[in-house]
Write a structure and sequence with these properties.
The protein is α/β, with parallel strands linked by helices. 43% of the residues lie in helices and 13% in strands. It is built from nine helices and seven strands, in the order H-E-H-E-H-E-H-E-H-E-H-E-H-H-E-H.
């Protein structure tokens, strides 16, 4: 899967983490982005590696289900020999230990051949399988969306545009509801909500949003009497 990263400038919090990852990538280090599911770990690494290694192709590789390990390894690992490709191996904390050991051997062999353009994602540093943890040179923490609320509006507008191929209006009340919601599913949940709404209308209103978003994010502050 080709990695898709935000094209618009986001918050200073996001840009600071991108810069840390970009610096490490530029030094040839294996970077791991850790954070909650759906927070944009692969997108952040994609943005960082595009800046550090502009000529590289970028691909995300998902961790396999246990029954798929034997077919997963041969499917993509020959590409590790390429010097113009970066792989972001996602959710390595879900890789069984035996597969992690095999993957480590492949990455070590690739590094010996001059290829170190590999990055990883996981929920926590401590959850990375030991064989892979030993290879990690740098770790960046990706903050959840609720800790960078100023990113909600630009991301929502980008997701709506991407869904229809043109600008789709998100009305101020709908944007307020989106901005006040806590987004437990992070950017992935925001993308799903906005894409669903934008697919049905040219102007996203509160009524196009899920009930839980409106209930949590659509309430106005109480009116005070003076």
């Amino acid at each position: 899967q080709i990695i898709d990263s935000p094209k618009q400038r986001l918050s200073a919090v996001w840009e600071e983490v991108v810069e840390r990852a970009r610096t490490a990538a530029g030094l040839g280090r294996i970077v791991t982005a850790v954070g909650e599911w759906g927070s944009g770990r692969a997108s952040l690494l994609g943005e960082a590696y595009r800046q550090a290694l502009a000529a590289h192709r970028l691909f995300a590789v998902r961790a396999p289900a246990p029954q798929d390990i034997d077919t997963w390894m041969p499917f993509w690992t020959p590409e590790l020999a390429r010097t113009d490709t970066t792989f972001v191996i996602c959710n390595v904390d879900e890789i069984p230990p035996t597969a992690a050991a095999r993957l480590r051997d492949l990455l070590v062999n690739a590094a010996a051949s001059g290829s170190r353009a590999v990055a990883l994602t996981a929920e926590r540093r401590g959850a990375i399988p030991a064989p892979l943890s030993d290879l990690v040179d740098a770790v960046v923490d990706v903050p959840p969306l609720r800790e960078r609320p100023s990113d909600i509006a630009p991301l929502a507008e980008a997701f709506a545009h991407r869904e229809r191929g043109r600008r789709i209006e998100i009305t101020p009340p709908a944007m307020r509801a989106l901005s006040r919601y806590s987004w437990p599913g992070n950017v992935a949940e925001l993308r799903s909500v906005v894409k669903s709404a934008a697919s049905r209308t040219d102007a996203v209103e509160v009524r196009h949003l899920p009930a839980e978003v409106v209930a949590d994010g659509g309430r106005l502050p109480p009116i005070r009497a003076f």
